[in-house]
Design brief:
homodimer, alpha/beta, Rossmann fold, six-stranded parallel sheet, six-stranded mixed sheet, 15 helices, elongated, DNA-binding
Chain lengths: ~350, ~350
DNA sequence: GAAGCTTATTTGATCGTTCAAATCTTGCAA
DNA sequence: TTGCAAGATTTGAACGATCAAATAAGCTTC
């Protein structure tokens, strides 16, 4: 309705005038309150409140040469069922970032080269002062570029090349999948399971290997010998169908299997279909699908990951040693679902 | 490695100096090339390329008073299985926005009031010049606030209150669910289905009512009388379990049902479980789950939605009448999956 | 009560760009 | 040649904030 004037936003000078002080004092009240005398500070605060003043984002960014923005790449479709993880991570990042005055902006890219082109664009335009990468691999050209060009970044997912792992320039946060899977396996054993199988990805993906290792550790501690363990483990590519096939094969080989841990909710869903829900299955990622169907899963706790990532980033920003070291391992949480609404009904 | 100087980014003056022209000419080359003589323009372009110059985002924003940024709220978890829709919409928005020099930033909010607080924060800080809302309802305080404060915005999802629908200040894009469902139903009938059921949400949600209406239209056109139609329709709350229950009840009542259209992939999954995959089911949203399991679904074509939303936004920006009217209806695409990898195996 | 110090506040310059107005070129008719 | 409009380019100012240096105010101390 109103329509009227475009209603110019109040500036620091307007506040200053109203409070009877100078621009700089207003600025100080906001950025280094300690330096302003109590009475003045209060007067300025009421003026700010009265006018509904807020610092002009771009003006501040121009002067301070900080974009206060972190860029995150949004994947094309968030591959398969497990896509929601990035979603939740983004949400956490946006929420936690805002608490620290950071804006999260999105970019897209079709391949690593394209992504580097984006880096260049954003960096050259001073549009961003840090990047969050959602996963990296050994010899990743993206991290190489970022390091080469002195750009702040954190990866969600540890770098899997041995040398990179300790590279002080590479900051990362990751979820300790090994620990999570181990704990899930232990819980299954503790509640009476006699043989717990594992359905995971082919060797070579660092993440998958870690998850399998966690399961293997739990079995070893429970007294299983290596031959027995080997028989209880099977491999499948990510995908519901291939998970179903593999689970079926494993069950044929090991009819007495009474629980199954998997490397992802996608595989878990396949396994559930194969077993008709008769065998408890634990997935990984705790996706909405796991919740809807009602099977157990290991939650990555992306909220913690986001907080850790931001912590690392502003450590980088201040060029101070990022706490103990340049990375953080978050412990996932096992979410056991006793009897999902649909588990028994799948058969 | 490099380490060295912080390497100041080149400015418009650096380019000007190198090309032997003034600042403003460089600016003109970028913003109104027509006004610069051909030869000069070329010289400036090579200088730009040589230095790898790009306009400083914040400086430009400060001067032009445009943030070139649109804000989108990221939902807490993206409810259930269908969450991926927002995900894909965001991706499309980011990608298409970038083509037009727009940045997509995220914000979060726990409820409408909180969201309005965010509006205020972003608007007062001149951090954003338009909002995209992912759905609205009748008397939505958010759209009221935005209109009241002359803020540009578009909603994905038409406003369901009658008066709002034609409000020239409310710009919206929506997917014509009625049309999509109708088309899917027709396709099923065309390939020989004799009775096609509908599993949808309780009346009252505009979106759900539209979808049901599309199915009803198709049946009517095919010569079904209203009593027959009514018997083929059933209602369920969103959720895999309730979908399964409802589908089961419907099948008991109508054993000869040979196809089922549903209001969401979540309901579709429930129906598939109930029928053991024996009855073809069409979902809505074409989520990754539909693709993974292999059942048919209606795709919202979020990419088109994103483009339309951006078109409307810059129509608003230029205060020119937004094409035919302030809204766009996108036709969804029916994705028929003949024999999903898992369909027959669910039983 | 004036010198000397600390604390509080103000002034002028600057970040990098674009706007508005001024100046310089060019082309062409008189 | 001169005049003069149209076109091309340049100059000065401004966007709104913060930095750095300068000034003013408040407290001690002798």
């Amino acid at each position: 309705m109103a329509g009227g004037m475009p209603k110019r936003l109040p500036t620091v000078s307007d506040v200053a005038a109203l409070a009877g002080v100078s621009r700089q004092t207003v600025s100080n009240v906001l950025n280094s309150p300690a330096v302003v005398r109590e009475g003045t500070r209060e007067r300025v605060h009421t003026a700010i409140a009265e006018l509904g003043y807020r610092p002009h984002t771009s003006a501040r960014r121009l002067r301070t040469q900080r974009a206060a923005t972190i860029a995150v790449r949004l994947d094309p479709v968030g591959g398969g069922i497990s896509g929601a993880v990035l979603d939740r991570f983004l949400h956490a990042l946006a929420e936690r970032g805002e608490e620290r005055g950071l804006t999260v902006m999105l970019y897209t890219a079709v391949d690593p080269d394209d992504e580097i082109r984006q880096f260049r664009r954003l960096v050259d335009a001073a549009a961003v002062d840090a990047f969050v990468l959602a996963s990296t691999y050994h010899g990743d050209p993206r991290t190489e570029w970022l390091i080469e060009h002195d750009q702040a970044f954190v990866t969600f997912g540890r770098p899997w090349g041995i040398p990179d792992l300790t590279d002080p320039k590479h900051f990362w946060v990751d979820v300790d999948g090994r620990h999570g899977v181990r704990e899930a396996t232990e819980q299954l054993l503790a509640r009476g399971a006699r043989s717990v199988g594992f359905l995971g990805w082919p060797a070579g993906s660092g993440t998958g290997d870690e998850r399998r290792a966690g399961w293997a550790e739990a079995l070893r501690d429970a007294g299983f010998d290596d031959a027995r363990s080997a028989a209880l483990s099977i491999v499948a590519e990510e995908g519901v169908a291939s998970g179903r096939e593999a689970a079926r094969a494993l069950l044929e080989r090991e009819p007495h299997l009474d629980a199954l841990v998997t490397a992802s909710d996608t595989l878990a869903l396949g396994a559930l279909i194969a077993t008709g829900g008769r065998v408890p299955v634990v997935g990984f990622d705790n996706t909405p699908v796991a919740e809807a169907i009602g099977f157990s899963s290991i939650d990555q706790r992306v909220d913690e990951v986001a907080v850790a990532a931001l912590d690392l980033l502003d450590a980088v920003g201040r060029a101070q040693s990022a706490g103990p070291s340049g990375h953080r391992l978050i412990e996932p949480r096992v979410v056991m679902r006793e009897s999902g609404p649909l588990l028994g009904l799948l058969r």
